[in-house]
Amino acid sequence: MKSKLLLPAMLILLWGCGGSNQNKEQVAEAKNVPAQKAETPKVEPRVFFKYPEDGAKVGSPVYIEMGVEGMEIEPAGAVKEGFGHHHILINQTHWPLGEVIPMSDSTLHYGKGQRDTTLELEPGEYTLTLQFADGVHASYGEPMAASIKVIVE
Description:
The chain has helices at 2-18, 21-32; strands at 46-51, 56-58, 62-69, 72-73, 83-90, 107-109, 116-119, 124-133, 145-152. The longest helix is centred in the N-terminal third of the chain and has 17 residues, at 2-18. It has two domains: 2-32; 46-152, Immunoglobulins (Immunoglobulin-like, Sandwich). By secondary structure, it is an alpha+beta fold. Strands 2, 4, 5, 6, 8 and 9 form a six-stranded mixed β-sheet that branches. A three-stranded antiparallel β-sheet has the order 1-3-7, with no helix packed on it.
């Protein structure tokens, strides 16, 4: 007697679970929908001074902390797109695009990938420019330069 009652109950259960063709179509559509990737907003490449601030009065040696966004820092050497290292230009606004930055008392290289440094400067007012360049010190030009003024007391 139990088996006669179980069969109709199982059929009802199966019919309810199997659902209509509409449910099957929705499942099939959901499986064919490509997954959407979370898009990371593109950052415009730029360099900036983390420290000191523009207009700061500082003592010597002057502590400098350098920043970059949208590009990666790596030591001088191979030229790779999206990579480079910092240079500090003293009393200059930027180095021309594509030109190699020479090493001098007013064009300082940080070709080991340094992100900070100290500068010995005489008292006075200075324009300090952070200039990003590629693996062979070829400048990324004005778009990858940032200047601040500091007063060394």
